[in-house]
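Weekly structure sync, notes
Attendees: PL (lead), two postdocs, one rotation student
Agenda item 3: pending single-chain targets
PL asked that the sequence for the first pending target be pasted directly into the notes so everyone works from the same version. It is reproduced below exactly as submitted, 397 residues in total.
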Amino acid sequence: MRLLTLALACAAFAPLSIPLRAQGSFRDPQDLGFKPLDPAAIESSVGFDKYSFVYGSDRNPLAQNKDKRPVWTDAPEYTSYGDDKSLTGDLTKEGVKHSVLRLRARIRSSTAFNSNDDNSKLLLAALLSKLDEYLAQLDLLKPFVYIPRPEADFEAVGKGNDRITTEACYFCGSDRQIVLGGDLVKKPPTGSPSVYYATVTQAIEIRAVVDRMRTIFVALKEKPYERVTARLTDIDASWSNYLEKGYSQYPWESLLNSYVTPFTWESPPHHQFVFLHPELGFEIDTRAAKGSSAQAALMVHTVGYVAYPSDARDWFVGGSATLTFSDQDFGLGIGPTLHVGWAKTYSVLPHISVGAYWHDFSSGSHGPIIGFSLDFWRLLNKDNGSDLFKSALGAFN
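Predicted structure, written out during the meeting:
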């Protein structure tokens, strides 16, 4: 795909930054159905002495370990969600989706949220809903469009009202708002001045998920060269699959499709039209009670349609109305033909079409005969007449 290299390179280095969306105003957790947990029970629970900072700001110097990371990142509950490398090794759309689904499955199966209390259900539902929202964005993403990275949405912020203040509010202002804990504005005369809406383990695991989401977003932002390279590779591969490994096009078909099928430099056509497409094949008559006979035939796919469902254009399916010609017993035939092919098998086996054809026999039998044909033009011309299509493509760009 040398013809498109310059255009691809110029367009690929378009601005990579995406504005971060600010979080909304604070909503009182009790208005969302959360109930304050017993402070005495939380503060006497296992791990609180070591990881109590999980309820505060992750920027607090007192909450950092020797590696300048929040101390709760050392907790087994946190590390069990995997390391950064395992989540950012593949920054393609499918790779990011796979990483988010892994995080979703992990928190969904956590025993920390198995309790029947309202807070556990609300915390899990809010986090899963936010992850599902992002997964839906990925599913709606058009091919070769930059992957969204709403990093600010997954950042803990300081908020409050006239009742409580917190440094650990996620998704503030939305129905999915999560507050891990905070401090009461009016200090009680006795007891703890703090308020908690998640257990220590729940808070650590929520932090584990949102931190890893932010890690993915940071990696998407900090590795533009790798993403651009991957993008160009994907574009080149999709064009190569369409022009060189897809269903062949004779010169007149290439000319027709270059004008009637929509495409851009970054997105090859999702379909092509078949018009007067000859192929060599054979027909097998299996209607006889004893045995069968086969004859070579010329098959002309008069009109048809072929679709490429995947973004990579690495497989196709379609159909044609076909005429068959044989100089032996079968004579002229007509019927539908199915076209199917995969780019991965192209180097081993040329694309094969199969159809059912009806002939006018003197015996009065008008049942169909099975026919097979090879992608003849692809066998003779590996370039598939693509130079003509490339020239037409260059005229449009």
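Discussion points:
- Confidence is low (pLDDT under 50) at residues 1-22, 383-389.
- Residues 118-140 form the longest helix (23 residues).
Action: rotation student to compare against the earlier draft before next sync.
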